[in-house]
Structures are given as C-alpha cells and as structure tokens.
Amino acid sequence: MKLHVNTSSRLPIYQQLGGQIRAAIARGELKPEDKLPSVRELSRELVVNPNTIARAYLELERAGLVVSRPGLGVFVNQPQADLSDEARTRQLSELVDQLLVQAVHLGFSAEALQAFVEQQAKQFQWKPSDPQS
Q1: 59-87 pLDDT tens trace
Q2: Which residues make Cβ contacts (< 8 Å) with residue 15, sequence separation at least 6?
Q3: Which end of the chain has the smaller Cβ count within 10 Å, N or C?
Q4: Where along the chain do its domains lie?
Q5: How confident is the model at residue 90 (pLDDT cuts 50, 70, 90)?
Q6: How far, in Å, CA of 36 to CA of 30, rounded?
Q7: Architecture of the domain delimited by 13-76
Q8: Do 76 and 65 contact (CB within 8 A), yes or no?
Q9: What are phi and psi of 66, to 5 degrees?
Q10: Closest C-alpha among 62, 71, 121, 122 to residue 96
Q11: What's phi and psi for 85, nearest 5 deg?
C-alpha cells in the first residue's frame, strides 16, 4: 500500500490518509493484523508533521479499524459488527442518498450509475453472501 498526500486538496491531510487506509482495508490490500508504518516512518516518507499521522491513526482507531499496541505499533483490527442491522442499513441509506444526489447533479443516468457502481465494486473485498438472504 502506497500512501500519498495532495497538498492542493481542500481535505485535511489526516483525512486523506485515513481515507486511503480505510479504502485499502475495504479492498483487502490491508488485512487484519497487518502492521501500519510507524508515525515517524510515514512522517519522513510523506514529509508530513508526525502529529498529522498520529491524528489519522487516532481517527482510525476511534472508528475501530486499527488498534494501537504500545511498544509494537498500529495494526489493522479484526472486523467489528457492533451496529445493529437497522443502524447499519440507516447509515448505508444516507450514504447512498448522497451518492444519488451527486450522480443526478453530474448528469448520470440511472443505468450509467448502476454500471459504474458494479464496475467499481469489483475492486473491493466483500463479505460472503448470506445463503438465507
């Protein structure tokens, strides 16, 4: 996994890094128990303040995606299913609504959006289907 920062982006650097790590976990590029680069190491590599890296890691830890082990480093956490099905569905619905609003404003047809989403979904690591669904 290669992280990068875009200094001309309006998105803060810690959010850029957090988003890239989240995506790498979702795509299966980072697996549970994989060790992330140390704050110092990543700070030197990206020429970014160490506090920015630490903040990105802290946000990921708060979200339950990584776990910090004192003296050992930061590791990708095991997947958590802390939310009820109803809460997860509500959150997903809000995100899908945002996507649909943006797609309409960008001039996509429903068919073009569906094809695009199907193509993009192939990049991610999905949980096996529930045979009872």
Answers
A1: 999 988 999 999 999 999 987 766 677 87
A2: 56, 59
A3: C
A4: 13-76, 85-121
A5: confident
A6: 9
A7: Orthogonal Bundle (1.10)
A8: yes
A9: -130, 165
A10: 121
A11: -60, -40
